[in-house]
Amino acid sequence: xxxxxxxxxxxxxxxxxxxxxxxxxxxxxxxxxxxxxxxxxxxxxxxxxxxxxxxxxxxxxxxxxxxxxxxxxxxxxxxxxxxxxxxxxxxxxxxxxxxxxxxxxxxxxxxxxxxxxxxxxxxxxxxxxxxxxxxxxxxx
Length: 140
What we know:
It is built from five helices and five strands. By secondary structure, the chain is α+β, with helices and mostly antiparallel strands. α1 packs parallel to α3 (71-86). The longest helix is centred in the N-terminal third of the chain and has 18 residues, at 27-44. The two termini are 28 Å apart.
């Protein structure tokens, strides 16, 4: 699983990846686990006021209280919601998969290397091309 937090101009401020052991779970659970991982890492580093985004519409609807998911998903959603409240996250937004390629490339990276990785203000070279792609910009 992978996550990326960016500043207002799209620069990476924190990113992470680790192996997802819940491979038989549904996508909403996997997306929720990745988002919880990201929020936990941001809390440890003192980041606040983040806008949380995911490409799982069901997860975002559950976080907004507009959809009731299965029990396992709702437990993870509850964790995310409580941590987001503590670090003053103002909103949860849906973004299409085409705007979330960095997180997906980090998820693949995490599954390949098998252990937790965190990056501050950078990401692994294999994901660099997706940073501008996610923002709809051409590489320089």
